[in-house]
Task: structure prediction
Amino acid sequence: MDYNTRHFLIESKRPEEGSATDSIGGYVGKVLRVNLTEREVKTHPIPKEWIRKYMGGRGVAARIYFEEISPHLEPLQSDNKLIFITGPLTGTIVPCCGKYECVTKSPLTNRYLCTNASGFFGPELKKAGYDGLIVEGKAKEPTYIWIKDESVEFKPAAHLSYKATTETQSMIKKETDPTSKVMCIGPAGERLVRFACIQSDHRTFGRGGAGAVMGSKQLKAIAVKGNSSVKVSEPEKLKDKLRTLLSDITAAARDYRKHGTLYIVDLADEKGTLPSRNFQTVTYNFAADRLGVKVMEKYFVSHTACYNCPTACGKLLEAKDPPYKGIRADLDYELVWALGPLCGVFDYSPIIAAVNLVDQYGMDGIETGYAISFAMELYEKGFIRETDLDGFDLRFGNHESMMKLIKMIAERRGFGDVLAEGALRSSGRLGNTVSKYVMHVKGLPLTGWDPRAMIGMGLAFATSSRGACHNVGGWTGRDELLINEADRFATKGKGGLVKTLQDTRAYIDSLGLCTYMRSPLGFKGAKPDMEILQLVTGVDFEGGLMEIGERIYNLERIILNREGVTRADDDLPQRIKSEGIVVDDTGLQHFLKDEEFQSMLDEYYKERGWSLDGVPTQNKLKSLGIP
Ligand code: SF4
Result:
């Protein structure tokens, strides 16, 4: 078929009466399905029952994955799919509702992956007339998809091959519409680096390698432009409601805007939870003087925001010192940590330059920093030599070597090709004895919180639906560090805490709402106020949001179970259980003994209604109506 052929949508056979969602506020009523192999484009509704049970975003995407992705599928083969789904609030006038979810099989963990992004693409997709987009198959040559309302075109992308993410997006805007929104991969995605990300403006689908899945399909980018607006059920009442919340929204936005997530450097350093040197240690009263908010302000250029967001939590910083002077990047805490203290680097200029590099190559900054940190430890322990590295020194803190290695990974050159497989897979090529130094759960590295200093976080990492993650697994920092509601070194009660955090995050990710604005809008954890959702949708979601969150988490668990996950996979790296860290002036060594960890896990399974093998019981599934 000719590349320039314009494809118009074919309405697929409409399901049985009453299953469409076009009559519900906040939903358009159809999902776009694009098959790259066949160059076929069609639409279909999301069944109403799925909306009632899983709402949207992560929940509905997981439900589609459950139906369509075989547990035996190879993530980089053409039968994997990229399932992008918005939530009912995405693109509405409710502030901070630019979120949408991507679900696929991860080439990094070889399992279910959910990853979300803010930005502008999700709202634009909805304005073009779609609640979501499912990409299937594999193009015969480099391609990008151009969606303009009901028109969908397959465009040639050979001229964009190996272009950086910023250049790709601007070239596509010139070729399509300067106001279109573009998501794309960089050279790392095209080279199938297993932790390549999908980038759109300054936001990414970061963790787990969705960018490599896109690269395996020879799909360089997707551009969208929509000319409709998102209809809600009670527009005037919604405006009135938002007016009553205005002072809370403004206050929350003002507090968070100042430093975004970068305030966490100071918090984590004060509490001794900030991991350094591949989790061999944590910083305590050390990082704040070098990377804390007072230091960050010297590099500050501007705040960056997503769709309809008064907060603008993104922080665009500019490097001041040679050889990085003038390089800019948008930073958050996890990026600063992974390409900073985790690699022994405590200086903003190289960190900004490193974040800029991973963004332009299109790689997840957390996994990139993690893989380099792992390699630095192996170098210092003598498992890797300079001769393996084109002659450079890879000790912790050597930021010049860190830059070289980022490029080598993205271009799959030399030792970079080994690390491009992700730390866990690379350990297989480096000899079995080094696998004990990989700090991961289910193939996904731990993030910037040391579970020895806040042990509820260890349970959250171990039981997160996508491998170690403080978002999907539940961030226990509010309870364990900020309000001291839970003793951070105690096991008791952590099962219930982590379950609540996970279920909460599952419904937030399904609304299409950024988590940072949830409280002022009434979505307060375990006791959410449903009014805004009802005004948007006109639907009374039976059972409430916590039940929807719990249903989503259980659905994800049975997906993981069928992909081979058992209790043995809900575990933490040996280092966390056997090597102590000092987190405060007492000088005490803290680690999480295996028996303590197992008792937390037992409590968690009990709270969840799962067997002691980590499988949801039939009673639990029945009570939640799964699938
Ligand atoms: S708070 Fe930050 S991540 Fe959330 S919508 Fe606003 S700018 Fe985006």
Observations:
- The radius of gyration is 23 Å.
- The chain is about 35% helix and 15% strand.
- The longest helix spans residues 544-562.
- The CA atoms of residues 139 and 509 lie 30 Å apart.
